[in-house]
């Protein structure tokens, strides 16, 4: 478990260590003795990039039903048709989900409750933005809204769905819910001694990568706390990191007038060092199938369990965790009709 790996942190969180893993730790093949026949997976952001490839890899393992959660019906239908051509005997459905809208998340959760079983969930949707943008309804900065607030809302709702279905005997083994994080959390310098939401919503000094790294650190902090309140016999929850992957569309919300570095240097860097989409997606599959209960509440990267960010091993990190939980519950209490604070009580 990540909680036991603090000793590995100096190397794992160093720039040299991150580059080593990016360049010299190679793709592990998909398991050959696994059949997902009769099972169901739900993947958000699955119309392109790593989400689409993860869908394909699960189908290669015999998955019987795939729910592709997408923001655009047209792009989802196009992606689904490609998969149906490759896998004609599989039930592939396209459902709408806008991660920036609480109402859409609630509606999606209701659809999931209507399924007879769900074995695997990958929460893959995320974003970066070069410019500070505020959500016109919630008032929160958009990267923070999508990468953290909406993601943990959907995570809690679906964890409840998975737990209920597991208890009714719909699945033989615990379902797995994996949330896509990032090893850039190691580089976050987020201050633990101040309120979280006001800091993330402050446009002063906004910087694209800092906001992204901070949002992924907060995601790991929250998921670790949530996992403590859910038995891995009910639902296995983990956070996985695909690494830097070329061609994902993550940086599509760029500056309309980019400077030289953003326009030329960064894309060249990602293209030169980025993993192939197949490799990034296979980390998702490993997080679903490869670690089992020992990976519950852990950070999975490079096809194995890795340490948390340094802050999570400190007293300040625990204080941050407690504060973040309270602020998040205060925000989400009115976001869902299901009484979110009652789903998982400390």
Automatic annotation (TrEMBL):
InterPro entries: NAD(P)-bd_dom_sf, SDR_fam. The keyword Cytoplasm does not apply. It comes from the Eukaryota. Pfam families: adh_short. One of its GO terms (molecular function) is oxidoreductase activity. SUPFAM superfamilies: NAD(P)-binding Rossmann-fold domains (SSF51735). The keyword Oxidoreductase applies. Keywords: Oxidoreductase. This is Short-chain dehydrogenase/reductase family protein. It comes from Fusarium oxysporum f. sp. vasinfectum 25433. The lineage of its organism: Eukaryota, Fungi, Dikarya, Ascomycota, Pezizomycotina.
């Amino acid at each position: 478990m990540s909680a036991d790996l603090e000793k590995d942190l100096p190397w794992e969180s160093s720039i040299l260590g991150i580059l080593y893993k990016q360049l010299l730790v190679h793709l592990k093949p998909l398991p050959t003795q696994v059949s997902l026949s009769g099972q169901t997976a739900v993947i958000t952001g699955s119309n392109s990039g790593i989400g689409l490839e993860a869908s394909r890899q699960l189908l290669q393992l015999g998955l019987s039903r795939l729910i592709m959660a997408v923001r655009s019906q047209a792009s989802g239908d196009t992606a689904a048709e490609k998969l149906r051509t490759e896998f004609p005997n599989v039930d592939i459905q396209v459902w709408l989900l806008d991660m920036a809208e609480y109402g859409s998340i609630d509606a999606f959760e209701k659809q999931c409750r209507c399924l007879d079983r769900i074995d695997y969930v990958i929460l893959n949707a995320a974003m970066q933005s070069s410019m500070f943008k505020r959500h016109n309804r919630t008032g929160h900065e958009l990267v923070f809204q999508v990468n953290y607030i909406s993601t943990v809302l959907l995570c809690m709702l679906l964890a409840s769905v998975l737990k209920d279905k597991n208890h009714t005997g719909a699945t033989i083994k615990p379902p797995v819910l994996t949330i896509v994080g990032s090893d850039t959390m190691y580089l976050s310098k987020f201050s633990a001694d101040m309120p979280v939401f006001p800091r993330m919503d402050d446009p002063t000094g906004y910087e694209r990568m800092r906001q992204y790294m901070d949002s992924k650190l907060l995601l790991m902090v929250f998921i670790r706390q949530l996992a403590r309140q859910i038995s891995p016999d009910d639902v296995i929850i983990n956070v996985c990191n695909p690494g830097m992957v070329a061609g994902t569309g993550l940086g599509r919300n760029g500056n309309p007038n980019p400077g030289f570095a953003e326009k030329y240097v960064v894309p060249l860097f990602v293209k030169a060092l980025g993993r192939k989409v197949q490799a990034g997606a296979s980390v998702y599959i490993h997080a679903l199938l490869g670690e089992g209960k020992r990976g519950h509440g852990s950070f999975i990267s490079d096809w194995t369990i890795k340490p948390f960010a340094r802050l999570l091993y400190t007293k300040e990190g625990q204080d941050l965790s407690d504060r973040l939980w309270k602020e998040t519950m205060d925000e989400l209490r009115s976001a869902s009709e299901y009484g979110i604070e009652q789903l998982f009580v400390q």
